[in-house]
Specification:
This protein is mostly helical. It is built from 17 helices and two strands. Pfam families: DUF2400.
């Protein structure tokens, strides 16, 4: 994105952001779950569980996260600190959500408990990788590897073999966009505001990478933030680089509003004439004006 294009887009995105009722959308987002808590350790533990399982349809993963957190009691951090394989069996026996079974989730919970006992916080575990690599990709890869460093023999004995552990906690990270992990980092690092918590102070918001999914990818192409069509880490970095030209210190601050613009159906995969006509971002969009022009010719 050129500096001139960035200057044209910035006021439109700022106006768009100001018009978004973020609090009204929290109930449609997995970030709702860590908003149940006030203690930073409870927030980071519940948030990682919610983000890790936030794939597929929201009406399917939300009940799974809700049920687990309610069984874990008032303090998820205290729960995972004390968790052992037998306790994981009591919590997760029979658990299945799409690619994942109870053993997969048990690894995540036990890994978080180990990090809290040994390092004091999940932030400390992430910062180890951040300091070693100086890049989000390397830091996230070390983070998931650290979480997976739990004894598997006893866990497999009580809960059976893992099935989708790499999907839940990819290690090594690989070329994918790591949307859910970057989403978790956005919650922890930027803010605090109505959505994000800003409880991790040792990682700068300027280093965050956009949580790239189909909604963000489509809207990013419409706005000229990227020409790439794949949902890869490279595309996420390219979109983020464009956003840094708009706000170098907080490049992912538009993420929640843009993602929910797609999730809500206001900006669907197949453009809707009435929606395009009312869109705050119309004059920066590569698709909307063409849709309106075609509709006018047909009428």
């Amino acid at each position: 994105m050129s500096p001139k294009a960035a200057e044209r887009l910035r006021p439109l995105l700022d106006s768009f952001l100001a018009s978004t009722d973020a609090r009204a959308r929290i109930g449609f987002d997995p970030v709702e779950f860590p908003h149940w808590y006030t203690d930073p350790r409870d927030i980071e533990v519940s948030a990682l569980l919610a983000a890790a399982l936030a794939y597929g349809r929201a009406d399917l993963f939300r009940p799974k996260v809700d049920a687990l957190l309610r069984q874990m009691g008032p303090s998820p951090a205290a729960y995972v600190r004390a968790l052992e394989p037998e306790g994981a069996r009591a919590l997760l026996h029979g658990f299945v959500y799409r690619f994942n079974v109870g053993t997969d989730v048990a690894v995540l919970l036990l890994g978080m408990g180990r990090a809290l006992r040994e390092l004091g916080s999940l932030e400390a575990l992430f910062v180890q990788g951040w300091q070693a690599h100086g890049s989000m990709h390397g830091a996230l890869s070390d983070f998931t590897t650290g979480l997976r460093d739990v004894p598997m023999g006893e866990l497999r004995r009580v809960l059976g073999p893992e099935r989708g552990l790499h999907h839940l906690l990819p290690s090594p990270l690989g070329p994918g966009a790591a949307k859910r992990l970057n989403l978790y980092l956005r919650w922890m690092v930027r803010g605090p505001d109505a959505v994000d918590f800003g409880i991790w102070k040792r990682v700068p918001a300027s280093a965050l990478v956009i949580p790239l999914d189909t909604h963000i990818g489509r809207i990013a192409r419409h706005l000229g933030l990227t020409k790439r069509t794949d949902l890869s880490w490279r595309t996420a970095e390219e979109v983020t680089a464009s956003l840094r030209r708009l706000d170098a210190e907080d490049p992912v601050r538009y993420d929640f509003a843009l993602c929910h613009y797609g999730m809500s159906g206001v900006c669907p995969a197949k453009p809707v004439v009435d929606h395009c006509a009312r869109c705050v971002l119309l004059h920066a969009c590569a698709v909307g004006p063409r849709v309106l022009s075609a509709a006018k010719r047909r009428s």
